[in-house]
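User: For a benchmark we're assembling, each entry needs the component sequences followed by a predicted structure for the full assembly. Here are entry 17's components. Please fill in the structure.
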Amino acid sequence: MNDSGTFWLPEAASTVAAEVDGLFYFVYWASAIIFVGVVAAMIYLAYKYRRRDPNDRPEPVEESRLLEISWIVVPTILVLLVFTWGFQTFVTLQTAPPNAYQIQGQAYSYGWNFEYPEGAQTTDELYLPADRPVQVRLSSREGDVLHSFYLPQFRVKQDVLPNRYTSVWFEATEPGTYELFCTEYCGVGHSQMLGEVNVLPADEFDEWVAEAGINEDELSLVELGELQYQRNGCQGCHSLDGSAMAGPTFQGLYASERAFADASSVEADENYLRESIIEPDAKVVEGYGSGIMPSFAHLSERDVTALVEFIKEQQ
Amino acid sequence: MEAAAHAASQTDAEPRTYLNHETSLWEWLTTKDHKKIGIMYLISLAVVFLVAGLLAMAVRLELMSPDFSIMSASQYNQTFTMHGIMMVFLFIVPSIPAILGNFVLPLQIGAKDVAFPRLNLASWYVYIAGGALTVTALLVGELSTGWTFYTPYSSQQGTAVIFMTGAIFVSGFASIFTGLNFIVTIHKMRAPGMTWNRLPLFVWGLYATSIVQVLATPVVGITMLLLILEQTLQIGIFDPALGGDPILFQHFFWFYSHPAVYIMILPAFGILSELIATFSRQRIFGYRAIALSSVAIAMLGFLVWGHHMFVSGQSAISSIVFSLITYLIGIPSGIKIFNWIATMYKGSVWLQTPMLYALSFLFLFTIGGLTGIMVGVLGVDVHLHDTYFVVGHFHYVMMGGSVIALLGGMHYWWPKITGRMYNETLGKIAAGLVFVGFNVTFFTQLVLGSQGMPRRYYEYVDRFAELHMISTIGSFILASGLFLVLGYALHSLFYGKKAPQNPWAAATLEWTNVAAIPDPHNFTSTPLVTRGPYDFHKADEVFGGSGDGQARGDGAGSDASRLAPPEAAPSAPKEDASA
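Assistant: Structure for entry 17:
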């Protein structure tokens, strides 16, 4: 997290934060002016009318109706103004946009579980897309106590209750890492009930959520291969429908005859596919440039095999 | 108390005073004298304040830096819980009414005692029983619920919670007894001529407080009883595991505990009016506005409890209504501040220790009030709720308001209570230390809170380390000031100069018509009140300039001989006294 907060407020990282901060500073400055006025008047009067002689016998001062009415009316107008503004901000905070991305949050003593619509689950880590409204539906575990979901950089907070849903929404503006605190006292682990909020750019978030939502060990090789095809960005160059892109299409690739620039050719079997993934420039099909595709030697054995099986399926 | 009585009886043998009259321990413990009951409360509450204050120091020490630790998380939770419970329920709520209200109220209205002296004594015993139950709670188990007892956490904490809620239930009756007593006393026991418009504002403050005590305290009693029933009989009221509703508990709790804030602050407002008027030698500006705004606050105070629950899950419409009423209650408090400041206009401002506390109060309570406006703003409260901003805010109101006013009042009435003057120089130094220490401690907490530091955290992230360190240093300055007060107060009991009848040249009856140390029955003859409580200018009409020599004191400085007090009220004719 960068330290771009002010003296009073931490960094602002949600759309509503700007509105809350504006209101905070309006009340702050209005208060500061009133406070300085009160203290200045107090010091001035205490000095100007300081006791000069124990026998001072000041004349009683007549009360001024006008003065009294003015210091009733002016503060009343001020607070009603602040109320109205605070009310509007509150309505914004309470009203989630209908298209908000839904995350389920469950609090327990002492931690947080989050579950995403795609099936991903995290503990003490909340992943969020930037620039997309998100609604978190919260509840506390059965038989657990109250907690409160607080994102200081987002200026939102919502108590979490057992046996009941509450919800909170926000829209993160800046990718980065932020704090999640529990702010309803819940026992010895209260101050350790922290979480980390990771805001990702929308596209990275989509990737993350697609990836994190699946237990790879339970996938068949072909399904895992499809996942790796998307995760590693293969689809950027290799189509599945026969259309030519920066690289050859995968459609009908397996068992086809590959012709190379040096007029040699080879049948695309499993070992050919494997070599092309790990060492792409070893054999470059005629019509395509070398040095374009990076090596994927870092993939695990199972991932590579999965990719090969996936490509074999594309007939 | 006996030391004071003893010292007084030795050096001041001739006149009968309440301190040299019936001095045995048994006579003290069975006394029906409101002044002695006030002193018994003073000693009990001083002990509670000392213990709860030391707990606060332990909390600050633990939080001094992220790496430094003097206790475990569980011990820390118990420490702040006991700090909160003792300070709120056993110290601040009873403090001003039970100590100064008991001592001063009958004197100020020209009465021999409160309306029900036995009930008054009973309230002290009930309070002590509450204290005993508190000690029991500590002995039977760990108590770590926080002073708010939120369910379902508190439902899962076992027997200590039952004893503690029992203690609050019992000590609530002490509040109710005191409140009832004061209401009846103010209605029925005023001296002839003491009309409602001539009541000192301290009495008005206590009157408003008493109404709240009598109406609100039963609610916390019932709530605590329901908690006990739920735990012992396993019926679902607040605990969702039994089918109860935790938010219902919060409603019940704050329905008392918000008005309780006014129980704590209204008598402080009363003290402030006395201090500002006396030390400005000026009639209080807007007497009627101050008196009536206290009553307005007492009434509106019942309708704002939901502002503690903006993020609890209560309906948005409730939150909006509570926020609006919260603003309306801010106005009468503001009016008082402006009135007090205007009282100094064309006055003769005498900066003795009590006045320094009064000016501190104006400074600190204004911050307390304005931060209250801040947390009342719906959209902003969502960010600030349950952070150190709220901790800072209520300490500015409770300690910066109530406790500072109590300190000012204790210094002001100390000569009347003990017959001794405290050391003025040390008094001023202590007032300065308390003021500086308080601000260093709690202003930092306002910043911590708005930066996002949550309440009741045993550990915290590194970015809060610096501010926590400053706050802890401030708490040491604050504590040094308070210990200095304790030191010179004890010293003055034995070695302080004897106080004159009216060292501040105040105009209310406890100074003008009561001996330096009051008679056991307060007044030698019932006063006949012919003027307002702050008619300082009328002194000359009676005495023609300089005083009668009875009214000077160390507090008056070297020019004391020229100090003229306001006139004493004449005695009421005997036949009118019964009317």
